[in-house]
Design a protein that fits this description.
287 residues, alpha+beta, Rossmann fold, D-amino Acid Aminotransferase, Chain A, domain 1, Dna Ligase, domain 1, 3 domains, 4-stranded parallel sheet, 13 strands, 27% strand, globular
Length: 287
């Protein structure tokens, strides 16, 4: 029997509903999977043969503590997937700049260093945005995401200032097509395309998350879209067990919003073959 730990957080001590689908499928292959709540402290040596990061979705509140936990687990001899170096690189959204340098088309983005003095109206004047989304450069799940229209820029300065007290600030051009066309997510397992979904926002909302009233539906992309997603997924050259390419179609171009290689939801419930593919991907890793 292989002992597998699925890393989660206190909000999901029994894993998310989506990840719970993995437990019986892994057991069929003699892999005993259990949740590991990272906030509960360091692991004892040899508790698990492998750790897989799934839903530590509070990491952005105590990032240093989470990284310390990962480092201690690594020092104790644990193999973690995705690899810690990938996790650390993917935490801060500045990896998007590296993707831009490698030719990936993304939504226009800026990063403002922590403790900087910023006037959002100056950003709009310089970049000629109509609307932007501002958020901490390390964040997830729509946490402290704000939609800022040009004409209201000055009123959001106190919010930006508060974020900058403790974090770098990310400013991202708002792509309005998310309201009509949704956001596409392409899931890859061991570098191979598995399945895709389209995430739609609720009326009057800009965050494509179910927690904010959004919906998720299975989506069958064209061969060209899959090829495009492959190019993005491979752009950083990382060897990943799982990854997710998120983006929006605008003016017949796919603009990347995020390449998630750390803790993305993989939407197993939206594709009946995806759980089996994930289990097979894990087996490839453990031999």
């Amino acid at each position: 029997m292989i002992k597998l730990g699925l890393i989660t957080c206190r909000e999901y001590p029994d894993l998310t509903e989506d990840d719970q689908l993995l437990i019986p499928a892994l057991k069929e292959k003699k892999i005993i999977a259990k949740p590991v709540v990272w906030n509960d402290g360091p692991l004892e040596p040899n508790e698990f043969d492998l750790l897989i990061v799934r839903s530590p979705w509070d990491y952005y509140l105590t990032t240093a503590e989470f990284i310390s936990w990962i480092n201690k687990a690594t020092s104790a001899g644990y193999k973690i997937l995705n690899k810690p170096e990938i996790i650390k690189r993917n935490l801060h959204k500045s990896y998007l700049k590296e993707l831009q340098r490698r030719g990936v088309l993304t939504a226009d983005i800026m990063f403002i260093p922590k403790k900087s003095v910023l006037k959002l109206e100056d950003v709009f004047e310089r970049k000629r945005f109509k609307k932007v989304v501002i958020r901490p450069a390390i964040s997830a799940g729509g946490y402290e995401n704000y939609l800022v229209p040009r004409e209201e820029a000055e009123s959001f300065n106190p919010i930006a200032e508060k974020i900058l007290e403790t974090s770098d600030l990310m400013i991202q051009d708002y792509i309005e097509e998310i309201e009509t066309r949704g956001e596409y997510s392409f899931i890859f397992l061991n570098g191979e395309y598995s399945h895709a979904v389209i995430r739609s926002v609720a009326p009057g909302e800009f965050r494509a998350f179910e927690e904010f009233g959004g919906t998720v539906e299975a989506f069958k992309p064209t061969a060209d879209m899959i090829d495009m997603a492959y190019d993005i997924n491979d752009a950083l050259g990382f060897d990943t067990l799982y990854s997710r390419v998120d983006g929006i179609m605008a003016n017949d171009e796919f603009k990347l919003i995020e390449l998630q290689m750390f803790e993305p939801k993989l939407f197993f419930g939206k594709n009946e073959k995806s759980v089996k593919r994930f289990v097979e991907a894990v087996i490839e890793r453990v031999g």
